[in-house]
Structures are given as structure tokens and as C-alpha cells.
Design brief:
This is LysR family transcriptional regulator. It holds the Pfam family HTH_1. By secondary structure, this protein is an alpha/beta fold. It has 3 domains: 80 residues, Orthogonal Bundle (Arc Repressor Mutant, subunit A), CATH 1.10.10; 109 residues, Periplasmic binding protein-like II (D-Maltodextrin-Binding Protein, domain 2, 3-Layer(aba) Sandwich), CATH 3.40.190.10; 102 residues, D-Maltodextrin-Binding Protein, domain 2 (3-Layer(aba) Sandwich). It has 11 helices and 11 strands. Strands 3, 4, 5, 6, 9, 10 and 11 form a 7-stranded mixed beta sheet that branches. Strands 1-2 form a two-stranded antiparallel sheet. The radius of gyration is 23 Å and the shape is elongated. 32% of the residues are buried.
Length: 307
């Protein structure tokens, strides 16, 4: 009999590609992962991994079993969800991961809404860009709040995941309150702002790429003189008059003071915000009630309104 816990390890190894990465994702030591996969090979009675001194990769039999493991794990989760659906009230632990601005914007409404379910333990974590889908797929978290600047993420994701669109988050201009462009009666002129000290996230970050694409529409700007991790850090510096920036509107949901927010004429740059969960877990009461709370939070949150 193949043990379910070891099948989960094999499926995770197939996704990660190495024993070290599998161990890091699941919180085990590499030696423990290696031992459990060796035990699974003994249960299966066929080699599942080709091992060398420095690496390991799946054999053909290992790949086939990893595919079956994904199916089996999905069926088990679906069965658990059906049983949970018969419960009178949602209970247990629900783990949600979110990109930083969504975590800050949605947390108050989520805490109020889910506080009505005393049997539910709610955990909200922040995650690095691009990690949410992987964490949901591996079972590390139940729901991920992700952003998509390309419009392609749902189409490229594994079929076992369910995407729920929450809102569109447009790019807006943010300047200090004392800046001439803070006057709502004054048209936003990106040409005149090209030589301003722009601040943005480090190169490669989606929000940085959006700023660069925005400035490319007016011939580009001089190199960004200030690079900072975290949009809230950048906004606090704008409030102190250090420079200007453009950020997704949701980043202003915390009500940053000392800044003026302006719509950018004819700008179509925006990200889509989604909640993602495993299809097999959608019917679990704890997941269903959390998704409803996330929908409500996304609907009700009000970023600082631009002119």
C-alpha cells in the first residue's frame, strides 16, 4: 500500500525538481525527504528517482506515479471537502497568503468578517511575487491573493486551481501634497514630469516595469534615482517630498497622508487581482466562507480616491 504522505512528497518533488527545494517547501530536512522517497520506492517496488552524487531526477515510473499522486491527492481533498460541507459551521485553520498591498488593504475587513466564526482560525501571510500559486498548488496555503500584470496568469495556471477575479487595480500618479501637480484643476502632464525625481521598486519588480512602461509613452525618463523595497516605503518618501511615483491604487488603501493622488490620462496600465484556491477545496466551509469574506473586502476597500 502506497502511503499518502509519501505520495505528497513525490508530487512536490515533481514540481520543485530537487530534494533540497522540496524539503524547504514542506519544512523537512533534505535527508528526511530522501529517506521518505526511498521508502516510497520500496513500497512501489520500482525505481522512482535516478540519483547521482549531486542531484536526483524522476524516472519514467516516477513521473507517472507523480501524475497519479496529484490526481489521488485531489480526490482525497475533494472527499474531505464533501465531508466538511456537512458540518454546521466552518471550523479549523485557514491559511491565506497575499501580496503585500492586498494584505494591508484587505486585512481589516477580513478580520471583522471572519471574526463572526469562532471555530475558524484565520492566518494571513505575506508572500513574494509569484509564489502564491505555487503555495496553493503544493497545499502550503488554502487561498492565495495574487496580482497579474500580464492578463495571462489564469490561462497559464494548472487546471486543478480555481481563480476568482476580485478587482482591477489601475496605476495612479502620486506626488507630495505641496507639488504643483497635486492641484486637481491642473491637467496631469507626464512630459513635464519626466525630469522629476522618480522613485520605484527595484528592477524586475512588476510595479517598476509598469512605471518604466508609463514613462516610455513620453519618451522615457532619466534613470530612477531612488529604488526601494516596498510600495509603502516609497509612498512615505513621497509624502516627505523626496520625489514622485506611480503605484497601483490599492497601495493607497491604508490612507497614506501627505500625498496627492492623480489619475493618469489615457493610461491603461493596471493589474488584475485574483483569489486562487484548489478546485477540490472550494466546497470546504472554511474555504467558502473565507472566499466570501475576500470578495466583500475587495469590494468595500476604498483606495485614496484620485481626482
Amino acid at each position: 500500500m502506497l502511503e499518502l504522505r509519501r505520495l505528497r512528497l513525490l508530487a512536490e518533488f515533481a514540481r520543485r525538481g530537487s530534494i533540497a527545494a522540496t524539503a524547504a517547501a514542506l519544512g523537512y530536512t533534505p535527508s528526511a525527504v530522501s529517506q521518505q522517497l526511498a521508502a516510497l520506492e520500496r513500497e512501489a517496488r520500482v525505481p522512482l528517482l535516478d540519483r547521482t552524487a549531486r542531484s536526483a531526477e524522476l524516472t519514467d515510473a516516477g513521473r507517472r506515479l507523480a501524475e497519479r499522486a496529484e490526481e489521488i491527492l485531489g480526490m482525497v481533498e475533494a472527499a474531505e471537502a464533501e465531508l466538511s460541507a456537512q458540518a454546521d459551521a466552518p471550523s479549523g485553520r485557514i491559511v491565506v497568503t497575499a501580496f503585500p498591498t492586498a494584505a494591508v488593504a484587505f486585512a481589516p475587513a477580513l478580520a471583522r468578517s471572519l471574526g463572526e466564526h469562532p471555530g475558524l482560525t484565520f492566518v494571513l501571510r505575506q508572500t513574494a511575487p509569484g509564489a502564491g500559486i505555487r503555495q496553493v498548488q503544493s497545499g502550503e496555503v488554502d487561498i492565495a491573493l495574487i496580482d497579474d500584470w500580464t492578463g495571462k496568469v489564469p490561462d497559464q495556471a494548472p487546471a486543478a486551481l480555481e481563480f476568482f477575479h476580485l478587482r482591477r487595480d489601475p496605476l495612479v500618479l502620486v506626488v507630495p501634497e505641496a507639488h504643483p501637480m497635486s492641484d486637481p484643476s491642473r491637467p496631469v502632464d507626464l512630459e513635464r514630469l519626466r525630469e522629476e525625481p522618480w522613485m520605484a521598486a527595484p528592477p524586475g519588480e512588476p510595479s517598476r516595469q509598469a512605471v518604466e512602461r508609463l514613462l516610455d509613452t513620453v519618451g522615457g525618463a532619466r534613470p530612477v534615482p531612488w529604488e526601494f523595497e516596498g510600495l509603502h516605503t516609497i509612498l512615505s518618501l513621497v509624502a516627505r517630498g523626496i520625489g514622485i511615483t506611480a503605484v497601483p491604487a490599492l497601495a493607497l488603501a491604508a490612507g497614506d497622508r501627505g500625498v496627492a493622488v492623480r489619475r493618469i490620462p489615457e493610461c491603461t496600465l493596471a493589474r488584475e487581482v485574483y483569489a486562487v484556491t484548489r478546485t477540490a477545496s472550494v466546497r470546504r466551509p472554511s474555504v467558502a466562507v473565507t472566499l466570501r469574506a475576500i470578495y466583500a473586502a475587495a469590494r468595500d476597500v476604498q483606495p485614496s480616491p484620485p481626482d
